[in-house]
Specification:
Elements: H1 3-47, H2 51-71, H3 74-89, H4 91-127, H5 133-146, H6 149-165, H7 170-174, H8 178-194, H9 197-220, H10 234-253, H11 255-265, H12 271-278, H13 280-307, H14 310-337, H15 339-347, H16 354-368, H17 370-386, H18 391-415, H19 418-442
Length: 461
Amino acid sequence: MPPRTLVSSRARVVSWRVLFQMATVGLSTALVKVAGAAKIVFTARAFGMSDGLDAYLMAFVLPSFVSDTLAGSLSSALIPTFVEVQEIEGAQGARRLYESVLAAAAALLVIVTALLAISSPWVLRILASSFDAPKLKLTRTLFLMLSPTIPLSALAIIWRSILNTDGHFAIPAMIPAVTPLASIAFLLGFGRTWGVYSLAAGTLLGGVLEALLLAALMIGRGFPVMPRWRGRTAAIDQVARQYGPVIAGVLLIGGTPLIDQAIAGMLPSGSVAALNYGTRLNLVLLAIGPAAVSTAILPHFSKLIVSESGEYVRQSLRSYSKIILAITLPAVGFLVIFSGPLTRLFFERGQFTGAATELVATIQRYSLLAIPTAMVMALVLRLISSLKANYLLLRAAALAVGLNLALDLLLTRWMGIAGIALAGAIVQLAALIYLWRRLRGAIAGADAGEPIVIASPPDRV
């Protein structure tokens, strides 16, 4: 059989297996989102728009941000090197790397948590400048209760990543539902007596239970769960080099919603609320779809990089992209067409009138255009991480932030608040085109049968 035919045949087989894993993670993530929505409903019933809930939400901002940034970046930095070491040095070498990264991550997050706890009186005073003294004191107390979730998140993400690499996706993806369910249980059991403290206690217990369940799965697979520093190695240095650009990229990309909110705040009254309503469905779908793609594809791409030719990797990327677009484009088309009825169904009642429905539906239509691109982007980002070319993420993030600001200012002059949603879709497409082109330079072994050579960062973009 000719090499290209063999490549195409193998790529199709792999695609369906990995797509099944994507579907599994997507369904599991959707169930987690349902649990989170239930938590919001119970929280609203218990606390409404009270000062206590304000304090809890503000206290949760710092742990959530640090966990998403520092802990959330660990997977992209660790898995490609873990797979490479496993292939070259065997299971024992990969285990030593895992234990050292676990120890380093736990130490880093403990130090960050301690610094945040010490500086929290000043940091929270800046973040919650409108809170009076009693409300600010409550916020700090709740933050201190929630702060242990920061190092716990590092352990959970590393364990979940290793389990994914070992072929386990469904249960690790469903375990995050434990935290909202624990919060609901504490609200129902102790909400009347403990007040908002019950919500914080439920969140903390949920984080502990998540870590314990993942630890049990790791032990069941024969992995140790205690952090153990094995000394500095070339593999550790490689993980560290990939970790920094991922964090920087996450921080930069995290600034685009702030830009959108700031520009929306400059527009007529109600624009910020309309933007939030109009992008709600998009945010939920982005939390499920690209997350499922990223979780399932990173271990797979990482294995391909160390065992297959550049042609096979490129063929796999094209196969996944075509299948994902074939699924998402009709789905997005359906949602765009029925955006008006969906908006009326979920929002149009009380003070939310027909005029607001039309505006929100328009914003929703434009925001949904970003979903197909975001799904393919998830593939590209994970391939870049597998190639250990994360410096590209930082450059793409810088491009996205600058272009987002320029398009927000330009399109809102012509289209009002809907221009921000359209700008987001255009920025996503531009970043994808940039990264897709740069990938051609990151894979040196382009011909069939040649091994992949990781390209070093070029001097120029």
